[in-house]
Amino acid sequence: MNDGKILGKEISKCITLTSLDLNLRSNSIDENGAMYLGEGISKCVTLISLDLNLGKNNIGEKGAKYLGEGFSKCASLTFFNLDLTHNSIGENGAKYLEVGISKCVALTSLDLNLRNNSIGVNGAKYLGEGIA
Question: What string of DSSP letters covers 12-81?
């Protein structure tokens, strides 16, 4: 998706950004759009607050991987709200998110909505381990 690419590139220019609230719910963002968003967010290493709503898109497992890789660079995050409802990330996508979230060592507040993603028992286990 070109919109994800353009938005990701523009976000990556905001290297001193401390707060980002991005609502892209129901925008047909696919795994490529998620890749560009993840890359853009990864450049914002000074982020303290991130509120990202990608509910009802189509990022899938690979999109979750790209986002997790982006989040992993945001070690300064203290507040993180992530809504990925209805994205079919599956248990592997949950595992990728876990890897990224586990790198956010300064988190004091996490709100994670993964409704209707079929993450299963293993996906829930991965997330629990990453959050712990």
Answer: HT-TT--EEEEE-TTS--BHHHHHHHHHHHHT-TT--EEEEE-TTSB-HHHHHHHHHHHHTT-TT-SEEE
Q: What is the 3-state secondary structure (H, E, C) of 53-69?
A: ECCCCECHHHHHHHHHH
pTM over 0.85: yes
CA angle 85, 87, 89 (to 5 degrees): 110
Q: Which domains does the chain have, with CATH numbers?
A: 2-9+16-131 (3.80.10.10)
- Which distant-in-sequence residues (6+ apart) come within 8 Å of 83 by Cβ? 25, 52, 53, 54, 55, 113
- Which residues of the chain carry a pLDDT beneath 50? 1
